[in-house]
């Protein structure tokens, strides 16, 4: 399978390492032979139409901070030029999410789809701003569009709701979809101030470069958009979400929750309306998890309420969900 | 789809009610038209080769406590005679689990498979005592064998581990697989004695007629057998499980857990060995859920640890997992 990889951060590098370490197994067990033809990061690109050397790719990135130095030539082509000039089967989009115009991811994805490439995205921006139209574009161009890693990292939340609960109608859901704010709120519950808890989370590398994505609830809202479209069949985008972050949460709010035998969590919910907002959750509710965990509770018509809890981020974890998407595409292609 | 239903307890009755209330939707959305040709309970049977009237079936059961009075004739045929004489596509086995000889479920299932019928079982007995050989028998007779409802009731635990985590290797798992013991232990943690907590659970109808199934861990062990075979590819049966129940748990054990900031739970685990035993679980661990909830944490090679929590029992919930199995069979048949 010929792959173009957009972005080469932690997740993309973890993916390349999974390709390497699981090479034999992927081929023998699933018939998957990933061939990465092109990779680019913000500084430049590496291209080899017969397939890049994955070990070298990682080494170059570690040494120079960019894949640009992979070879002498071809290293200044921009993402879109590559997508136009290199023939591949799948685009894997891993550039950073932004919720203003979703670029450059949006252009990568639409360009690839129009060229007939299947797309896997862990970039939430394009989905948050244009889920319905991207699905239409994929259908129109008869390509597959997968995004398991956008919600829950390695925890297959989307797949669970869509497949394991097939034949069942989900009537509502609510969850903690952002691990960073959960970490901050969990620490505030032990007595830290908001500023100290934020600083601690930053020191550990949990907070996005643009902290607003976490603190103002944008990351959670983006995931809510994806869930609402994919699981509930709604046609919504970011502006449809009522979104309140955690910046205004005070120690008093935390204490008030405590007196109600509850904990304060940033909850993304889909019931009568779509909302991200701090809410009290009873301590013994399955959603009352601490640390960086994500948790989501689906309520269905006949199967009761079911909660899934897992790490919502992490390089290897998110890379493993890209791999699942790739195996799905491999399997679908094999059917035809 | 022509169905024979073995057993007519709470789950089976819930299933019939689901068939009724979702009739239109099942047909329009999934092309499923369930036709129940025969039902039997411990007192007798109801048979109509052109399909029983579901509403009448429920009414008769409620009025007489048995389906035997459905019509004047045919009401004394035993389960096996029915299986031998009535041509159907699917057997749904819902008689009570027993872990001595797994009868009458075992004979129902093997008879149906040998006749080329697909089998759905929510009876854990046959699977606990003979999982490997039942799978072989199903393969040999080219029939499908489904048992989603045996673990987690309506919570699709088996499906999640097998399908949502495809492409991923589960290395170990541990969980609370019996809601009754969780309820008892949760109440003991609030100060009740074992006897009082047991009495309360019995009053609420949570305890099996044979209380040993819950208290001695047999129910949890049976589910562990099913998980170990289905998820981990092991070939094990009940005697392979080290099993300790909760009868010997004292208030002191509960207090000791409390001082470790933990809670005592009956944990079924598959790591180096297969074991059911009371264990301390940290209070803020996702497995530390109270009440009658079930919870299971799967640890995988690349996607971290993921926990699913849900009601592990309930008529409608378990019936909805039978329905999922039936839809799967419907879909597979449609492919051929």
TrEMBL record, chains A, B:
The UniProt record lists the keyword Oxidoreductase:
yes
The UniProt record gives the binding positions of NADPH as 124
Q: What InterPro entries does UniProt report for this protein, alphabetically?
A: Glu/Leu/Phe/Val/Trp_DH_C, HDH_cat, HDH_short, NAD(P)-bd_dom_sf
Task: Provide the GO biological process annotations.
Answer: threonine biosynthetic process
Catalytic machinery residues = 223 (proton donor)
Q: What is this protein called?
A: homoserine dehydrogenase
By its UniProt entry, which Pfam families does this protein fall under? ELFV_dehydrog, Homoserine_dh
List residues binding L-homoserine. 208
The UniProt entry, under NCBIfam families, shows: PRK06270.1, PRK06349.1
What Gene3D superfamilies does UniProt report for this protein, alphabetically? Dihydrodipicolinate Reductase, domain 2, NAD(P)-binding Rossmann-like Domain
The organism named in the record is Candidatus Nitrosomarinus catalinensis
């Amino acid at each position: 399978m010929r792959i173009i990889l957009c972005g080469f951060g932690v997740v993309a590098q973890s993916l390349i390492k999974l390709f390497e370490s699981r090479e034999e197994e992927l081929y023998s067990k699933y018939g998957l032979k990933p061939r990465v033809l092109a990779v680019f990061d913000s500084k430049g690109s590496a291209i080899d139409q017969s397939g890049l050397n994955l070990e070298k790719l990682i080494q170059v990135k570690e040494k120079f901070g960019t894949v640009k130095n992979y070879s002498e030539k071809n290293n200044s082509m921009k993402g879109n030029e590559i997508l136009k000039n290199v023939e591949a089967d799948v685009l894997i989009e891993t550039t950073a999410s932004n919720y203003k115009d979703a670029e450059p991811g949006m252009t990568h994805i639409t360009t690839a789809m129009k060229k007939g490439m299947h797309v896997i995205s862990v970039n939430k921006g394009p989905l948050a701003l244009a889920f319905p139209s991207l699905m239409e574009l994929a259908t129109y161009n008869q390509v597959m569009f997968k995004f398991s890693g956008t919600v829950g990292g390695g925890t297959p939340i989307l797949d669970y709701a869509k497949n394991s609960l097939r034949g069942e109608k989900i009537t509502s859901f609510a969850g903690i979809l952002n691990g960073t704010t959960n970490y901050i709120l969990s620490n505030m519950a032990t007595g830290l101030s908001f500023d100290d808890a934020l600083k601690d989370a930053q020191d550990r590398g949990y907070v996005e470069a643009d902290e607003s994505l976490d603190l103002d609830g944008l990351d959670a809202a983006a995931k809510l958009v994806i869930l609402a479209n994919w699981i509930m069949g709604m046609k919504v985008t970011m502006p449809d979400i009522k979104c309140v972050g955690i910046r205004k949460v005070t120690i008093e709010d935390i204490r008030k929750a405590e007196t109600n035998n509850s904990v304060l969590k940033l909850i993304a919910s889909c019931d009568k309306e779509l909302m991200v907002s701090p809410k009290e959750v009873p301590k013994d509710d399955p959603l009352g998890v601490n640390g960086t965990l994500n948790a989501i509770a689906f309520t269905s018509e006949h199967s009761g309420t079911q909660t899934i809890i897992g790490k919502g981020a992490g390089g290897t974890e998110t890379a493993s969900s890209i791999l699942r998407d790739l195996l799905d595409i491999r399997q679908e292609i094999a059917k035809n």
